[in-house]
Here is the input.
Amino acid sequence: MALSLKNKLVLFSFLSVTFLLVNCSERQAETSDKKRTTEECKKDTASLNPNGDSELALLMRNMLHSTESLKEMIKKGNVPDKFPEEFLKIHTANPTDSDTKKASFEAFADNYLTSLKNLHNSQKNNVQENYNSVINACASCHQEHCPGPLRVINKLKIN
Here is the structure.
């Protein structure tokens, strides 16, 4: 059974797209268990943000990826161990828009860091409660400063 040129092109296109999807899925699975650094986030978003990303935006993305990993770890019954020191940069990281850091930002940042430290010092019996406190700290800040990510943040809670 001979295929026409048009059918060969359709088949080739289908196989190419399938290969790309499988390859991307495998790469995503490989990196999902790794801690993502700010540099990795820069690489992932470079083509999405041609004007570049601010330090604070990259730090927040890294916080998101770290929190997603923490959620899975906690759901499996594990307790986080090492506090992510790079998150202390929340106070000094430059925002995309200088108006983003209102006067209350520092208090929200302190609340987040305190909640995160409590989580990393948790006992197994209160780790989920402390994790949800971290998520609540994120949500509180984003309600006032940058509400866009709230939908994603609220999905991070463990019920």
The helical segments are 5-32, 38-45, 55-75, 105-120, 127-144, 150-154.
